[in-house]
Design goal:
The protein is an alpha/beta fold. It has a single domain, classed as TIM Barrel (Alpha-Beta Barrel), CATH 3.20.20. Helix content is 31%, strand content 13%. Helix 1 links the parallel strand 1 and strand 2. It is globular, with a radius of gyration of 22 Å. The two termini are 39 Å apart. The N terminus is likely disordered.
Length: 497
C-alpha cells in the first residue's frame, strides 16, 4: 500500500515494488554491508545497508587502498564525476596505510556542514547502495537512525541517487522524513528540523543543486525516485500518531520488540533494573498488534522473530513479514570482522554466549544490546583502559549556548568537557564510545598516534534460539541464502530431521 501526499508530483510517488516477507536488519556500522544486502536482495527479500557513518566507511576503505576496487567501481558510476574525483584525490591511497598509521579524519557532523562533509556523506551512501543493487533486480534499502539528524538529508540523497528502494528509520520519531524524501526526489532544498538542547528553530540544511552544481538544468539532473519509507517503532501509539497526518505518514512500519539487537526504546514509566542491572520491560512495552493492523499499512515484526515458526506466526497474525538481524550479522556476507564472527559462533556452539541489555553503554540514552566477548568494550577492564575521547561525534547532541551559538557534546567524551558544556556528570557514567567501537567491528577501527587500537563492541539480539538452531544446521557457518531458506521453512532444522 502506498500513501500519497495530495500535492505530490509523480516523482515523489514511491515506485511500485513487491513487499518482502523478510527484511534483513540494518546493523551497526557496515555490519549490514553492501555484500550482505546484495545477497539478501538476490533471494527476493529486502536487503538493508546500514546508513550509519558511511562517510567514514568510504574514507577509510579508500585509505586502506580499496583492495577489491569496489568503492572505486561505484564512484565511477556517480553521475557527477568531478564530485567523486575530489573525494578520491583526498582519501585514496593506492598502497594503503602503513602499519600503525592512523586514519585521516573526516569532518564531524554539525548544523553547518562543510562542502567536503556533504560530498563525503552523499558519496558514502551512494557507493554502499549502488554496490548492493549492482547486478540484480532485487530490493535494496538503507537504514538510518533518527538520532543522527544532521547527516540525514545528504545521506538520503546519496542513497536515492543510487536507486534505494526503501528508507528505514528508527531511534526516534521520524515525522519529517516523508516530506524530506518528497523534496529530495525533486532535487529541492531541504531544511530538516534538528533537536537542539535549549534551543528551537534549528535545521540541517541541504541543497542538492547547490552541491552538484548550480548550472545544472532540469535535463542535467540525475534521475531520482522516491523510495518507500518504513518507520521502526516500538509502540502502537507512535504508529497511530504517524498515520493521522498524510504529511508524516510512512509507507509501513517495523514493530520492534525490546529483545531486538542494537538500540531499543527504554521501558515505559520509571526505569527499573533487575538483579543483573538490566532494564525490566513489561506488558506496557509491547505494541498492540491489533491496533497496528487496523491502521491498514504493511508492517513487519522484529525482535525474536528469527525462526521459521516465528515467521509463519507473524504472517498468520496479519504481519507482512519479519525483520531479522542476528542471523544475518553472523552470515558469511556480513561486514562483521571474521575473528569476532568466529568467536560468537564458537560460543553459540558451546552454549556460553551472553547478550546483555546495557542501560548505560550508549551515549544516546537508549538501552543497547551488548554481546559479552573478551577483548571488547563489554569487558570493564577494556573500557577503563580506553582513553576517553569523542573524535567521530556521530552521536553528539547539539546544545544552544546562552549567547545563541551552538556547541556539541557527548556523554562518552572526557567528563570535564561534557560538564563544561552544561551536561550532567551523572550522564557520563558507564558510557562507551559506540562510534569508534562499531567501526572496529568491521575492521575499520582507528589506530592512535601512540599505538592504541580502538576495541570492538558487538551487538546482537538477546533471543538466541534461532541463531543457535541455524548453527546446528551449519556448524561451519552459513550463507545469507541458507539463512533465508531456513527462515522460510524450505530447509528443515537438524533437530527436525
Amino acid at each position: 500500500m502506498t500513501t500519497l501526499v495530495p500535492s505530490a508530483s509523480l516523482a515523489t510517488i514511491p515506485r511500485p515494488v513487491a513487499l518482502p516477507r523478510i527484511i534483513q536488519g540494518g546493523m551497526g556500522v557496515a555490519v549490514s554491508s553492501w555484500r550482505l544486502a546484495s545477497a539478501v536482495a538476490r533471494t527476493g527479500q529486502l536487503g538493508l545497508v546500514s546508513g550509519t557513518a558511511l562517510d567514514l566507511v568510504l574514507a577509510r576503505r579508500l585509505q586502506d587502498g580499496d583492495p577489491d576496487g569496489a568503492a572505486r567501481r561505484a564512484l565511477a558510476a556517480f553521475p557527477i564525476q568531478r564530485f567523486a574525483e575530489r573525494v578520491l584525490g583526498r582519501f585514496f591511497r593506492p598502497e594503503g596505510r602503513a602499519p600503525g598509521q592512523p586514519y585521516a579524519p573526516v569532518p564531524r557532523l554539525a548544523l553547518q556542514q562543510t562542502r567536503l562533509a556533504h560530498e563525503l556523506t552523499v558519496l558514502g551512501n551512494f557507493v554502499e547502495v549502488w554496490l548492493a543493487k549492482a547486478g540484480h533486480a532485487g530490493l535494496v534499502g538503507i537504514n538510518y537512525l533518527e538520532k543522527i539528524q544532521m547527516a540525514t538529508p545528504a545521506a538520503s540523497y546519496g542513497a536515492m541517487l543510487a536507486g534505494a528502494d526503501y528508507v528505514v528509520m528508527g531511534a526516534g520519531i521520524p515525522r519529517e522524513i516523508p516530506q524530506m524524501l518528497n523534496r529530495l526526489a525533486q532535487h529541492e532544498d531541504v531544511a530538516l528540523p534538528v533537536t537542539v538542547i535549549g534551543g528551537t528553530g534549528h535545521t540541517a540544511d541541504f541543497s542538492p543543486r547547490g552541491l552538484l552544481g548550480e548550472g545544472l538544468t532540469e535535463h542535467d539532473q540525475p534521475p531520482v525516485n522516491r523510495p518507500r519509507f518504513v518507520a521502526i517503532v516500538s509502540a502502537h501509539a507512535l504508529a497511530e500518531y504517524l498515520v493521522k497526518d498524510p504529511r508524516v505518514r510512512p509507507d509501513g512500519f517495523v514493530i520492534e520488540g525490546h529483545v531486538a539487537g542494537g538500540h531499543n526504546a527504554p521501558p515505559r514509566g520509571r526505569l527499573t533494573l533487575d538483579e543483573s542491572g538490566q532494564p525490566v520491560f513489561g506488558p506496557r512495552d509491547c505494541a498492540d498488534l491489533d491496533k497496528v493492523a487496523a491502521l491498514g499499512l504493511p508492517y513487519w515484526l522484529a525482535g525474536a522473530y528469527g525462526t521459521p515458526e516465528a515467521v509463519a506466526a507473524a504472517q498468520q497474525a496479519g504481519a507482512t513479514g519479519v525483520q531479522v538481524g542476528t542471523l544475518f550479522a553472523l552470515a558469511q556476507e556480513s561486514g562483521l570482522d571474521s575473528e569476532l564472527r568466529e568467536d560468537v559462533r564458537a560460543r553459540l556452539k558451546a552454549g556460553t554466549l551472553e547478550v546483555r541489555t546495557d542501560p548505560l553503554a550508549s551515549p544516546t540514552g537508549f538501552p543497547f544490546k551488548v554481546a559479552q566477548l573478551p577483548g571488547t568494550l563489554s569487558e570493564p577492564a577494556v573500557t577503563q583502559a580506553r582513553p576517553r575521547l569523542c573524535d567521530l561525534g556521530y552521536l553528539r547532541s547539539a546544545v544552544e549556548r546562552p549567547d545563541g551559538s551552538v556547541t556539541y557534546r557527548c556523554p562518552a567524551e572526557p567528563v570535564h568537557m561534557y560538564v563544561k558544556k552544561g551536561g550532567d556528570i551523572a550522564d557520563t557514567i558507564g558510557r562507551s564510545c559506540l562510534c569508534n567501537s562499531l567501526a572496529a567491528n568491521v575492521g575499520l577501527g582507528q589506530t592512535r598516534q601512540d599505538g592504541y587500537v580502538e576495541p570492538a563492541l558487538v551487538t546482537l539480539g538477546v533471543d538466541l534460539d534461532g541463531v543457535t538452531r541455524l548453527a546446528q544446521n551449519y556448524p561451519q557457518g552459513w550463507s545469507t541464502a541458507q539463512a533465508i531458506a531456513w527462515l522460510l521453512g524450505e530447509v528443515p532444522s537438524i533437530s527436525e530431521v
